[in-house]
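Recap for those who missed Tuesday's class. We walked through two folding examples back to back. For each one, the amino acid string is listed first and its predicted structure tokens come directly after. Nothing is annotated here on purpose, so try labeling regions yourself before you check the end of the notes.
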Amino acid sequence: MAPGNDTQISEFLLLGLSDEPELQPVIFGLFLSMYLIIVFGNLLIVLAVSSDSHLHTPMYFFLANLSFVDICFTSTVIPKMLWNIQTQSKVITYAGCITQMYFFLLFVESDIFLLTVMAYDRFVAICHPLNSMVIMNPRLCGLLVLVSWITCALNSLLESLMVLRLSFCTVLEIPHFFCELNQMIQLACSDTFLNNMVMYSGIMLLAGGPFVGILYSYSKIVSSICGISSAQGKYKAFSTCVSHLSVVSLFYCTGLGVYLSSAATQSSHSSATASVVYTVVTPMLNPFIYSLRNKDMKGALRRFLVEKT
């Protein structure tokens, strides 16, 4: 294949997490187990919120959307990885790679936006408790989710179209278990200046911007909690934020750790291994984080499971 002749590109090779044959059954079993936990755990939350009228509030509406996105998020990458291990193949078609990259970007950005919207909901509930139901009305909640989806879809489309303009050389091996945007750009042998500019601008606007919004919301929340006179009131207000804070910390810290570690070590395989934390582990832990410390959610899950048995 001649460099720059992108019309002949038909497939890429996903190198995965390890080249060791004896580790493939272990990786397959581990990721299959985690994927099943992610799907069933998050699906239970979606069904419990939908079926229980007590949970028809903005907080649980956004939580159900987050759980749905987590299912879609992991379904974009894990099934293909499991299929490749099972068939002992590393191939992904060019069209399949672009499609996977688009949906991965769409869902990971949607995750970020939903976490930001949930922080805003906690800010309204704690700082403006008397007007919270008026401010966070169903119309606004639906509009926030719709705007998030549209923004993420447009940015993902832009990033994908920018990759389509690239020419690739003879080395089409992606040292990852899915088609990650940065790895795709690094494989190109044409000029990638515009791609890098769009990618880093997108990270700053769609990851950095929401993170600043989350920090601002929680600075106001902490200030408001400190103004509560009773210790019981402070504990009750703070306890409504613990689950969300845990998920935000896990998502952002692991995501930031992946990029810092890859920049420090310059090892693509290390980056692929580290990215497992925010692409698989975080969506797997979300249902436990939101249900184990939440009496309303535990009650709704119990009622839902009893009705179905």
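Example two. Treat it independently of the first, because the proteins are unrelated.
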Amino acid sequence: MAKTEQGNGLDLRRSTEKLTDNGKGILNATDPEANGSVAPRETQVDKYGFIGGAQQYSGDSAEQIPTEVLRQREAKWLEMLNSWDKWMAKKHKKVKERCQKGIPPSLRGRAWLYLTGGKVRREQNQGKFQELDNQPGDPTWVDIIERDLHRQFPFHEMFAARGGHGQQDLFRVLKAYTLHRPEEGYCQAQAPVAAVLLMHMPAEDAFWVLVQICEKYLPGYYSTGLEAIQLDGEILNALLRRVSPVAHRHLKKHKLEPILYMTEWFLCAFSRTLPWASVLRVWDMFLCEGVKILFRVGLVLLKCMLGSQEKLKACQGLYETMELLRAIQPQYTQEGFLVHEVIELQVSEKDIEKEHHAQLRCWKETHGDLHCKSPLRMHGAKAIMAAEPPSRQDLRQRPTIIVQSPLAPMTDGEKSEEVKGSTKTNEEKQKKTIPPPEKIINPYLPSTGPDPLLKQLTVQGSNESLSSAEQDTYL
């Protein structure tokens, strides 16, 4: 597998084109045709933001959720997020079940931030992202990142325009990571992961979730030599022997090493492999339960494509098998089918850790010690929170707008304040005579024009990126 000059990354196609005019990544000039894959001028954007390409929404690939069910799930998730530490400590099984059902789209970004521990990292490192963002960055990494930006989801409206806010924020997040982990630098596979995060949250939040994925969920995946992904490839192969002996024998017969077909699957967390509805469901489970979800998805796909002699008739050699795994049949990637199979597959973190130790011994016998000393892998949100228990202050939500429901019960303090206020009002009424209103306005009359307040709240254009202080603006 070809690597970057620094030795970590997917195949990097060279380009003389630069998207920034200095080391800080100030992008300019919006050019939708600069991506090399031009979308039609007038095209319909699907509900995920895609204007074309293989991952554009298809009714056959996604489940339909009734609106009333979605609203109920939103209310449940809001309740969980308001008492996140208690839910994770006492009702983690329920959190896991709700992630398996799918996080409501309106709350997915906030839920991912909490699941990964990115919220806690952000609160504990106030101003860190801004500090990294203001630095110019290593010119070598800056150059490679610049030439990679237009390849990330070019058919998504957020990243279609050259110099648009999507590409700007993607550059900022990836550059900040190279400064945060200079010994690791940048790997091409981090770009689609960061792009998926930016579709759901502001740049600062996306940065901290990316940090958590790289350090907790997939440690060592993006380091020089890609040793961690090779090791996980051997673990996947060992688990496949148990899950689908037929598929395992076929791959062994044709000497098809796991690194040849599963690298992009795992490095990009299937974000470039599955239909978008399936990608989001897989990520909901992955960020809750950890890397075992990626193993399960890989095992399900291998079993479905190569798990019987009838299916193997179409791929008698190595080349045919590789082509088959590069183009997974749609019925196996459909949201409902895939999620059900992943949940039902009995592969636990204990199974993965057992194989990890076995494969590590084999690796040392054949390759010696690992060159990259990665931290221990955390198997999901519960393990991350247990390793670094957060404070209530770190988990506190800070929405931009707080609306007090008139039906909400008042606290004792609020009641006493209301009594004081009413007493004061009565005293003032005795001193003053209030004149009758000159005109009574019916508040229920239809408006003849836009509300002036709405004019002030109008979004200023797609080139503006969100700040992490604007929590509710991306819900």
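Answers for example two:
Residues 1-41, 429-475 have pLDDT under 50 and may be disordered.
The longest helix spans residues 412-431.
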